[in-house]
Design the sequence.
């Protein structure tokens, strides 16, 4: 369900973008008793292009860095253990990755 942000300030304008519309393609959401058409959005596609161009520069120059990878073994059998650690705030500042 689409949730609209509410801001109590008059000098802030809220704009929502769905990740799908940032790809520049139309799509349909079908649910129980409803169907919503989302047309392709040139504005969202343009924003996404500008955003990723800027993010690429920030990553290349080291101004922003991804979280370090916490590589774990054990495949699918161990993934739920990692999920429990995340739920219980036992993992912080790391990207938990399992080999399959």
Sequence:
């Amino acid at each position: 369900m689409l949730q609209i942000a509410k801001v109590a300030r008059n000098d802030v304008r809220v704009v929502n973008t769905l990740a799908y519309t940032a790809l520049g393609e139309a799509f349909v959401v079908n649910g129980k008793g409803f169907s919503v058409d989302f047309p392709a959005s040139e504005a969202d596609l343009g924003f996404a292009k500008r955003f990723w161009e800027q993010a690429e520069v920030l990553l290349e120059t080291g101004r922003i860095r991804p979280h370090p990878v916490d590589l774990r073994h054990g495949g699918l059998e161990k993934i739920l253990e990692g999920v429990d650690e995340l739920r219980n705030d036992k993992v912080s500042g790391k990207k938990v990755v399992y080999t399959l």
